[in-house]
Design goal:
By secondary structure, this protein is mostly helical. It has 15 helices and no strands. It folds into 3 domains: 77 residues, no CATH class; 99 residues, no CATH class; 55 residues, Arc Repressor Mutant, subunit A (Orthogonal Bundle). Helix 4 packs antiparallel against helix 14, helix 13 packs across helix 14 and helix 14 crosses helix 15. InterPro entries: Sig_transdc_resp-reg_C-effctor (IPR016032), TPR-like_helical_dom_sf (IPR011990), TPR_MalT (IPR041617), Tscrpt_reg_LuxR_C (IPR000792), WalR-like (IPR039420), WH-like_DNA-bd_sf (IPR036388).
């Protein structure tokens, strides 16, 4: 039961994030992290950490996503398909398309064998981006065309929209694969978002703002947890998110940067 609740919260957070409700998305993941901790099942913790890293990548905060995945021990060797997909996205964002493609090739083999077209569509889209980043545009178009062929009937719009401008740049040359679907996708792509303020790589939630305030007073992790009625693990997780958003290396630097941004 807990697993399905966490899956639902992960999906809700993603929906909130793509709808522009970023603070709500992070609050949803915070609630999910608390629930995951209660289960004492590391796989459930990793599910939420991988979801957090995915949102960090959507926000362009590659360094924070890398730290999140490293701390959760998520890598190319993870058993979970979702974890490996997020890890492949990280490699791609870090400018390692060939390494990312090796991870994706393993996922493709499993998805083909098990006839999981939903997974295969996602893998094909990411493989297309890997090939594009490696300078092989023809192969990128071929892979994206395969994804479109599978996705047209079920209408997997979100898979394409989530990958942003890089996919949008390839779509006009693939109108012949699925004319109506491609036009629908191109119309659905959002306008380019305004860049985040300098020094701030993502929105700070209400809980994280309160933690920053308590950091400024010099409270320890345990004292922060006690004040907010959360576990020390959740407090540390929030601190990890705060460091990423402020691009800070420690508590002192986080407070200094928060003051510079007018958060304190």
């Amino acid at each position: 039961m807990v697993y399905y609740t966490l899956m639902g919260q992960r999906s809700l957070a993603k929906l909130q994030h793509v709808s522009g409700e970023r603070e709500a998305a992070w609050d949803t993941l915070t609630a999910a992290r608390r629930l995951a901790e209660k289960s004492e099942n590391p796989r459930r913790w990793r599910l939420i950490d991988a979801a957090a890293a995915e949102l960090q990548l959507r926000e362009g905060n590659v360094a924070a996503a890398a730290r999140t995945l490293e701390k959760a021990a998520i890598s190319a060797e993870s058993h979970s398909e979702f974890e490996r997909l997020v890890y492949a996205r990280l490699l791609l964002a870090q400018g390692q398309p060939r390494t990312a493609e090796r991870v994706l090739n393993g996922l493709e083999t499993a998805a083909v064998k098990e006839e999981r077209n939903g997974s295969l569509i996602t893998v094909y889209v990411l493989q297309a981006l890997c090939k594009r980043a490696a300078g092989n545009r023809a192969a990128a178009l071929d892979r994206l065309g395969q994804a479109l062929s599978l996705a047209t009937s079920p209408g997997y719009r979100r898979v394409f929209l989530d990958e942003g401008p890089a996919v949008a740049a390839l779509l006009p040359q693939l109108r012949h694969v699925a004319p109506a679907f491609v036009i629908e996708l191109l119309q659905a792509f959002p306008h380019e978002a305004a860049p985040a303020p300098e020094g701030l790589a993502g929105p700070v939630s209400k809980t994280q703002f309160e933690i920053l305030r308590l950091l400024d007073f010099g409270l320890t992790n345990q004292e922060i947890a006690d004040k907010l009625g959360i576990s020390i693990g959740t407090a540390k997780w929030h601190l990890h998110q705060i460091f990423g958003k402020l691009q800070a290396r420690n508590r002192t630097e986080a407070v200094t940067k928060a003051r510079e941004q007018g958060l304190l």
